[in-house]
Every structure is written in structure tokens, then in C-alpha cells.
Amino acid sequence: MAIWLTKDSKVIVQGMTGSEGSKHTRRMLAAGTNVVGGVNPRKAGTTVDFDGTELPVFASVGEAMKETGADVSVIFVPPAFTKAAVIEAIDAEIPLAVVITEGVPVQDSANFWAYNVDRGQKTRIIGPNCPGIASPGASNAGIIPADITPGGRIGLVSKSGTLTYQLMYELRDFGFSTAVGIGGDPIIGTTHIDALKAFQDDPDTDAIVMIGEIGGDAEERAAEFIKANVTKPVVGYIAGFTAPPGKTMGHAGAIISGSAGTADAKKAALEAAGVKVGKTPSETARLMREVMS
């Protein structure tokens, strides 16, 4: 069992013929992901060979879905074209669109998110500026390394790609049901709360790791949700305990202003909701180890 991405998911890649798209399509195939085609209007009707696997290229997401039954799109297109690619996926009503692209203008993200809401939110958007989603041993949509951990019963939701990888590695002897990298931009399609709800409802997830970072109030809102709705144990980590105020750190959304959005404030909110919070990633892994043991 996994959330949103399973062994039965059929994946297409928007931008499959580009350098990043083709590289990661090859990696996804090697991980056992059921990639069924790509989208590039200029190369529609051609095929691309990935080490003996021939994948067709379609003119649009809608055509790809009609021909292959695809239900997931992974988007590897340059920032200037990302809004159009996401809107195309929304128009086709594909259930899941994973937007890997970094550097998408915040206004573009706001536009395609508002468009999705207006259309009834039939497409779940993960990202932008994220590593994607991986259900180890079943499917991998994005750039999360596939060989860090086997499948297991821990769920993970994270703003940070590298911290996703570290926690997956440190807890590899327990394994993960699904790891979701939601991205660190100011506007993202899937939040901590969305993932927490899905993991709470997943019978094969026993405990949850939640990784946040300084800036904004997403973690405080997640703490309120956990207190009211989550009965499974949650272990947390907030990146940026040593970040100076007023300085953007790594992600576009990771900036603190005065006392708002600090790591200490987020830690306090999570602990008040019963979440065990580590001061370092390794301490966070140790806390989860205690839960799972």
C-alpha cells in the first residue's frame, strides 16, 4: 500500500525528450516505474529508446492518457514553460502531476494553482521545485534515488529533497510506504497537511516523519491538524535552527521575519501537538527508531 503512487500507476513524462527528462525517465524505468510515454508536441509520433524500452512521444497529455491510460505526469520542462505544462495536465484531468522544475515564478505557480481550484481540483499537484514522490519497491515519480531504502511502514513528507534522502537512508532498515517531497517554494500544490491526512488514512503506514523548514506558517498549521486529526505517531524536524533573520536560506519560501517562521516557534508548535522534534536529522531518525521499536 502507498499514497497517491502505487505499482499500478501509469506514468508519463512531460519533457521526456529533454536532457533532464530523458535522464530521469531512464532512472525511473530502472526503478521499476511503469513509464508509458512522454509528451512533446514537436516530436509527437516518434519513439525514444531507453536501454531497450521504446517509449512513444505524444502531442499532448490528453492524447497520452487516451492512448496509454496514464494517471500520473512528471513534469521536466524549463521554468518559462512550466505554467503551460501544468495547465495542460489540469485540462486533461490527470489525477497526479508532479512538478520537478525549480525556479518557477511564484506568479506562475499562483496562476496554475488558482486554475486548478477553478477546475475543481481534479488534479493533485506536487511541487513545483520538489524531488517528487516515491513508493519504494513499487514506483518512483521524480528524482528521489530509488536504492536508498526498501518498502516499509513509515510515511515521510518533506519540504527538502536532500533531507528526504537522508532520513530515508538513516531509516532504511525499517523502510517507507511513501516519501513525498512537497517542495519549498512559497506556493506549492500539496501541503504537509494533505500528506499527513493521506498517511493517517493509509492502513499500511504506521508512523510519519515530517520535515519542515523556517519561513511561513505551514508547520504551525500542520501542528494544529496533527493535534485534531492524527492518531499515528509523528516525528518532526525543522531545518534552519541557525538561520539568521531576514535571510533566504535555500528555498524561496525559507525566510524568517522577526519572530515569525522561526525554527524554535515551529518546534514549539509541533511539540505542543505531541510531535517529537529532533534538533538534527540524525536525532530525528533516532526518535523514529524508538517509535518503530
Quick description:
With 293 residues, the chain is an alpha/beta fold.
Description:
This protein is an alpha/beta fold and 293 residues long. The protein folds into two domains: 11-126, 3-Layer(aba) Sandwich (Rossmann fold); 148-292, Succinyl-CoA synthetase domains (Rossmann fold), CATH 3.40.50.261. The protein has helices at residues 19-30, 61-68, 79-91, 106-118, 161-170, 192-201, 218-229, 263-272, 281-292; strands spanning 11-14, 35-39, 47-50, 53-58, 72-75, 96-99, 124-126, 132-135, 139-142, 151-158, 176-181, 207-213, 234-239, 276-278. The mean pLDDT is 94. Heterotetramer of two alpha and two beta subunits. Keywords: Ligase, Nucleotide-binding, Tricarboxylic acid cycle. Residues 4-104 form the CoA-binding domain.
Query: Order of strands across the widest beta sheet?
Result: 3-4-2-1-5-6-7
- Integer average pLDDT: 94
Following the backbone from N to C, one meets helices and strands in this order, namely EHEEEHEHEHEEEEHEHEHEHEH
What is the β-strand count?
14
- Give the CATH level 1 class of the largest domain: Alpha Beta
What gross morphology would you assign? globular
Helical fraction equals 25-40%
* CATH fold group of the largest domain: Rossmann fold
Overall structural class, as computed from helix and strand content, comes to alpha/beta
Number of helical runs?
Answer: 9
Q: Give the second-level CATH assignment, the architecture of the largest domain.
A: 3-Layer(aba) Sandwich
Estimated share of beta-strand residues: 15-25%
Q: Which stretches of 5+ consecutive residues score pLDDT under 50?
A: none
Distance between the termini: 21 Å
Q: Report the radius of gyration as a whole number of Å.
A: 19 Å
